Give the backbone structure.
Amino acid sequence: MVQSVQRALHLLELLDGGGASGCSLTELGAGSGLKAPTAHNLLGTLLALGYAEQDAATRRYRLGERARRLGSGRAVVARLKHAAAAAVRALHEGTNETVILAVDLDGQRHSILSCESRHELRVTASTGVDEHFYDTATGRVLLALRGPGAVGAIVARHGLPGPAWPEVADAASLGSALAGIRAAGEAAFSKPASHVQALAVPVRLPGMDLGIALGLFYPSVRDTASRRMDLLRRLHEAAGQIAVMYERI
């Protein structure tokens, strides 16, 4: 166990318990058993990363926006998985293609639900965490749902898409491509190298700014223009059903 990580997490737990009024450095030191200089140094790191904040007038510390967003995001994801399970399963059974539900949480793509096609020739899928924003349909939708600053953070970390998105050559064309996805309310593209057709639509929860995308993936040999339109229609319907179920539970 890494001691500094353990200590920082303990401080976050104390800040969470302190609520809106926050905690003084003395209170945090007493609650954590840390000496004031050690607690102060750890708090400095948490402040710099946005996991803690300090009231300029009282000098008391509170849980930061990044920690609050992470906590609330996890709670939303747990509720979302429960709300979306039936719609994802029905979409999978109605199309017999691979379906994925993904969320943008703390700068990563979290695939939280997946159902694989029963066809012998199929696209495989699994749940997990990655940063495939450029080369997946759900990733492109999630990126389109982000604000310009958040998109800039992805570009700063990974650079421009390159071969993963050949139509995007610079920041301006990336912005245009994302604007097109937002306007259409969907992303659809083929991956010639892997012979995969990828489709995705946003799932919009009222009052929530969490990026959510529902995707469907299948071999290009089963793709036709009319089938693609039908699958996109089914995706939009399922996304709407997920939003309704989320409000009901």
Summary: The mean pLDDT is 90. Strands lie at 52-54, 61-63, 98-105, 108-115, 128-130, 187-191, 196-202, 211-219. The chain has two domains: 3-63, 69-248. The CA atoms of residues 118 and 167 lie 32 Å apart.
